[in-house]
Model the fold of this input.
Amino acid sequence: MKQQRPVDLPRWVYLPALVGAAFVLLPLVAVVAKVDWPSFLDLVTSEDSRAAFWLSLRTSLASTAACIVLGVPMAMVLARWDFRYLGVLRSLVLLPLVLPPVVGGLALLYTFGRRGLLGQSLDAMGIQIAFSTIAVVMAQTFVALPFLVVSLEGSLRTAGDRYEVAAASLGASPTTVFRRITLPLVLPGLVSGAVLAFARALGEFGATITFAGSLQGRTRTLPLEIYLQRETDPDAAVALALVLLVFAVLVIGFARQGRGAV
Amino acid sequence: MSSRPRRALLATAVLSVCLTAGCGGDDGSGASGDEGTTLTVYAAASLTQTFEAIGAEFEKQHDGVTVEFSFGGSSDLVSQIQEGAPADVFASADTANMDKLTGEDLQAADPQYFATNTLEIAVPPGNPGAVRSFADLAKAGLNVVVCAPEVPCGAAAVKVEEATGVDIAPVSEEQSVTDVLAKVTSGEADAGLVYVTDVIAAGDDVEGIAFAESAEAVNTYPIAALKDASDRDSPDSSDSSGLAQAFVDLVMSAEGQQILADAGFAPAG
Done:
């Protein structure tokens, strides 16, 4: 829908905006141009590729679910709670955003690995996390969680607590307020946060390869498969990269659509 | 806004681009004699320590020459060189990756074989998995990590498996030998297949278990002086490629071979 803005944009923004768009889009065009189309279908439907794709899809969905379960309460505490060290707490929670993913993987290893903080007791109970699909989901959740928390906390603060206060004053219980007022109000923010988290999980590489390893069908997700294929078969790597790109575009487009309808 | 500050801004921008990208300088490959000449060496990651030592020796022998290294997976380096990276010398961890360059016009001299490397089992200190032989790696319940068959160390592991009939079911097939080593040093894996040189370089962090079957898969390291893109354009190209050959010669010399032997490499053929 096109609408006339009451205030024009300053004219100088167009050039950098254009340069920025080209900077993002040109490399994507370059990937598409590199694709070996005649053998594209064979490359992306090979057993390795399919195994990696389904694993990526399953683990990214699982880690998005984990992000929602853990991230929504975290965002609520950060947005509604008022205490002195909130700023510090927020910075700590957001740390995985700036942490190189490989360091995140190491941190997980030092925590849940066999000799890690918790891993030793887990190992004694016969539970081994490293090299399992669970480890992939944990790595993805670790790096994706801040995206959901930041996005949702912003929505919660923008929405404010007027309606929550009104509902509570009329006798609604905190859970009812959450269910009937807060959640519907911030649903668009939650959806876009979840999409961001899903996209981040889908592209996760560093923490996964450090913490979970790489085995077909178990821990080798699409980004790991792309990285490995590049060694011997760059055409396959490019083809898979395109699949990942298209998939990401679809997910983001779908979510935008959904958000617009809310 | 007047145009003066804008021009100043532009000048600053250009200047900062120059500072970072080096305007007008032709990366010093040769044109101005030995003074400030840089020799760029692309070498397999497993050569990091040895080649840095050889590079220091080379700088000592050639006044005003700086040796710059780019270490990485051999296939990564090959694709960078194919995309025009300014490499003067390339040392690969296997012949397959060097062969990719022989087809191109980038190769100046025929590759020379300067070292070999064989596989060894690396286990965490104390050997918690009680691994004694290559056949032990097939034991149930043992967390074994290997390289993926797509990378040279994994190809070597497959060769040994095929020759011995031992079928390893790894918990992970890693991207590189350093990734395998990291899984062993952290104690996540009970055993990993790496190169002899990696076990030596890791020091006390791992224990090495040599096995006779490793002779089934010997990795040969080739090295070659390259004609890089900028050299081919400039008429005065003899300088840098001469230096590149001199570096190759140093690697092949008794001195270079000693440095490699100290790190655990075996001489080539």
